[in-house]
Specification:
single chain, alpha/beta, Rossmann fold, eight-stranded mixed sheet, 6 helices, binds S-adenosylmethionine
Length: 208
């Protein structure tokens, strides 16, 4: 079970961002569209190579649903579900995005070909490192249960420059998570840590 305290905290944090900024990448705590899209570019590597493929994707922690349009630049035959812990963020996404389905919540109930998630493991506030690590592990177990073909997520990296690291953020160990995914979910796991920011992406392919 995902820790409800963490969900409530995410809800409060991002609802406040929405009230402050209303729209744009700052609602999701990204500095710029470029910072948001460099992450989209990585997580979308889990999606089919053939841009005519038909697939379903759940965007977990979808924010304002910007990924819907991003995927639409490359694919035309996909079903998109965006899910977010903040009811107000989901209401804004519904108003803003023409297409897709948006759900308030944090338990994925249906199966999808792919689960993708960008930015949900970063803001730990005063949750302990141990509890945050458990939250990540429980969440990726859920992804594994509901993803038919694969899933992708990102985290800030513990290989960040110390002078820029902040106490309220969580810097994950990419090697631990790579190893965990390999041992528990699939033989086909990629660790992407070569895109120039203090962040890494893990792709878990359940079907090649
Ligand atoms: C950093 S923002 C990223 C939004 C979007 N993925 C993007 O990149 O533009 C994280 C979003 O995930 C939501 N969130 C965080 N943890 C979540 C969880 N466990 N379940 C569902 N939503 C979550 C927050 O409410 C917030 O809107």
């Amino acid at each position: 079970m995902i820790d409800e305290r963490i969900i409530r905290q995410a809800d409060m944090y991002f609802t406040e961002k929405l009230q402050e900024y209303h729209t744009g990448p700052q609602v999701s705590d990204w500095n710029s569209v470029e910072a948001q899209e460099v992450r989209f570019q990585q997580i979308c590597k889990i999606l089919p190579e053939d841009c005519n493929s038909k697939f379903s994707v759940c965007d977990y922690g979808c924010g304002l649903g910007d990924l819907y349009a991003y995927i639409g630049r490359s694919y035309s035959n996909f079903a998109y579900v965006g899910m977010d812990a903040s009811e107000q963020v989901i209401a804004s996404a519904k108003r803003k995005v023409d297409g897709g389905v948006f759900l308030h919540g944090h338990n994925i109930e249906d199966k999808h070909d792919y689960i993708v998630s960008s930015g949900i493991f970063n803001i730990k506030s005063d949750v302990s490192d141990e509890d945050w690590r458990k939250y990540i592990v429980e969440t990726i177990h859920m992804f594994n249960q509901v993803a038919v073909k694969g899933f992708a997520f990102n985290c800030l990296t513990k290989y960040s420059d110390v002078e820029y690291m902040k106490d309220y953020l969580y810097y994950a160990d990419p090697l631990y998570l790579f190893d965990y995914c390999k041992k528990n979910f699939s033989k086909n796991v990629a660790l992407l840590h070569d895109y120039g920011i203090y962040d890494f992406t893990i792709l878990v392919r359940k079907e090649l």
